């Protein structure tokens, strides 16, 4: 058997180190960002609704999923990795329900229509990147990159709370462009990163376009949520 024939197996068994620490870093940022408003109230969580608990649980589960999957590959538990990956199809509707419920709960507590569009921006980018990862499930390099990139939208709400909302999306763009440039310098296939950059920019343009061109859209969405 040739070396080239063994190459895909080697790559499968040894994921990039970033595939292990990156989800952990996102988890740490989330814990810090939401400590004053959520995690700091452990264990009573006084005044926290079930919708918020549900959303947090779904998001934490996804982060743990992105941590577990590379570990399974590193330990050559390929079949378990695939079975766990199949659960993604059933978990995505649960994640979508979590986004919807937490938006509705927040808007009923405090009306902020523009925040609905911002949340829709994050959710759309997240689901797009996950969908691309599932689409390329048989192309290992693309699949792993898109699944890791699905955590990039998590930077918006976390960095928005830790630093300032105005810097979170630019930092997301910087992260994606840096990964794109790094991949090209290493003569690796940079297309997943390029696709992610384009998706973020298209989403951002759509967000700005709706906010400026259709200012009543956020109010309409608020009325839909409040029903």
List the helices and strands and how they pair.
Blueprint: H1 3-13, H2 18-33, H3 50-74, H4 78-109, H5 113-135, H6 140-149, H7 155-162, H8 165-185, H9 191-213, H10 217-226
Helix pairs in contact: 2-3, 2-7, 3-4, 4-5, 5-6, 5-9, 5-10, 6-9, 7-8, 8-9
What overall geometry do the principal axes of the alpha carbons give? Answer: globular
Radius of gyration: 19 Å
Helix content: over 70%
Tally of alpha and pi helices: 10
Following the backbone from N to C, one meets helices and strands in this order, namely HHHHHHHHHH
Mean pLDDT: 88
User: Count the strands?
Assistant: 0
Our estimate of the beta-strand percent is under 5%
Largest sheet: none
Given as residue ranges, the uncertain stretches (5+ residues, pLDDT < 50) are 1-13
Descriptive tags:
disordered N terminus; mainly alpha; 227 residues
Characterize the structure shown.
The N and C termini lie far apart (63 Å). This protein has helices spanning 3-13, 18-33, 50-74, 78-109, 113-135, 140-149, 155-162, 165-185, 191-213, 217-226. Helix 2 packs across helix 7 (155-162) and helix 4 (78-109) packs antiparallel against helix 5 (113-135). 79% of the residues lie in helices and 0% in strands. It is mainly alpha-helical and 227 residues long.
Question: How would you sum up this structure in a few lines?
Answer:
This protein is mainly α. It has helices at residues 3-13, 18-33, 50-74, 78-109, 113-135, 140-149, 155-162, 165-185, 191-213, 217-226.
């Amino acid at each position: 058997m040739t070396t080239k024939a063994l190459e895909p197996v080697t790559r499968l068994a040894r994921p990039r180190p970033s595939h292990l620490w990156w989800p952990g870093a996102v988890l740490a940022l989330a814990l810090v960002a939401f400590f004053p408003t959520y995690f700091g109230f452990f264990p009573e969580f006084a005044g926290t609704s079930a919708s918020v608990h549900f959303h947090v649980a779904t998001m934490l589960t996804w982060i743990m999923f992105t941590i577990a999957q590379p570990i399974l590959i590193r330990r050559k538990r390929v079949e378990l990795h695939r079975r766990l990956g199949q659960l993604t199809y059933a978990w995505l509707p649960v994640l979508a329900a979590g986004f919807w419920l937490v938006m509705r709960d927040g808007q009923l507590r405090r009306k902020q229509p523009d925040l609905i569009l911002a949340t829709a921006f994050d959710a759309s980018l997240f689901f797009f990147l996950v969908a691309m990862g599932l689409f390329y499930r048989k192309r290992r390099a693309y699949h792993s990159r898109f699944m890791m990139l699905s955590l990039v939208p998590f930077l918006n709400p976390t960095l928005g709370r830790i630093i300032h909302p105005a810097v979170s999306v630019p930092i997301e763009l910087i992260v994606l462009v840096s990964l794109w440039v790094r991949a090209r310098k290493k003569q690796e296939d940079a297309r997943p990163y390029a696709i992610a950059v384009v998706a973020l920019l298209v989403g951002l343009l759509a967000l700005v376009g709706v906010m400026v061109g259709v200012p009543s859209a956020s109010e309409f969405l608020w009325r839909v949520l409040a029903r």
